[in-house]
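Q: Could you predict the 3D structure of DnaJ-class molecular chaperone?
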Amino acid sequence: MELILIVGVALGFWWVWDRRRHPVRSCRRCGGSGKRRSAWNGAAYGACSRCGGKGETKR
Ligand SMILES: [Zn+2]
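A: Sure. Here are the predicted structure tokens for DnaJ-class molecular chaperone:
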């Protein structure tokens, strides 16, 4: 039981530390391109609504 607690706390610290090191990740919705293709016209695109066209989102 104590071992599970220690591992859990260690994983929590590692997760927080990783978040601080990498606060920004590529947008999942547009795949980091910042563009969102139109469903009707493949040549038309707009800014991704999730990342605002930057292609990056905060984790
Ligand atoms: Zn996006």
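Q: Anything worth pointing out?
A: The longest strand covers residues 24-26.
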